[in-house]
Amino acid sequence: MKVTYQGETGAYSEMAVYKFFGNKVEPVPCKDFRDVFESVKNNQVSNGVIPIENSIEGSVNQNYDLFLTYDLKVCGEVAVKLAHVLITNPQTKFEDIKTVYSHPQALGQCRNYLEKHKWEIIPAYDTAGSVKIIKEKQLFNAAAIASEKAADLYNMNITARDIADNPSNYTRFLILSHEDTPPTGDDKTSIIFSAKHAPGTLYHALGEFSSRNINLTRIESRPTKTTAWQYNFYLDFEGHRTEKRCIEALQALEKYATFTKILGSYPRVI
User: Fold this and answer.
1) Is 127 noted as a catalytic residue in this protein?
2) Phi first, then psi: what are they for 174, rounded to 5°?
């Protein structure tokens, strides 16, 4: 089974691939998130894995937006604990460090540590990719923030450990497919909808779930990018879309929505 993810070998997204699918899977790295969606859409791989939110830095907004562009399903979720370390070339001493490379999310998760040392910050496309950059370019006055696995893969030094602002640092990943998952009895459903522009519409829309004792686990708003100051809402709720109460809630939602898209139902992990 081939499964694609954004980043280089050793990235946290690759860890998510192995955690969800097991060791027999063949991870396929790609450059950006759109490539993940494209690979699944074109059946080049069976599944894709994308980060959707971090427990410290919040949402990965680009991936929310890509769900509007691609007609793919969410068939699963997985959480990966992020243990950031500071990585350098073997020749580099701690006092030599002037710049630090990493993915913007990882840089944000280590903000206090970075501000303390007043290094120049350079965003990179990936955590493991930032290690690859400082190795290939032989940057002996630079460091990268990534996982221990990335340091091992590139034969680099770990200069400091546990540098994240919060030790409880997790990223939630969604699994992309052409189909979602049959009911298991402990499921979650993800949808996108746009509420009508009228007083109380969102309140009443969410009330359709509350009145049926359906627990909402996440709500996120994103600009529609078609009309100024209007938004799409990304909603996760407990239950499978084929359950009677969920069917009724989704049907009732139509009274208050101008647009609804069911992303999929899948076993609840978080």
Assistant:
1) no
2) -110, 150
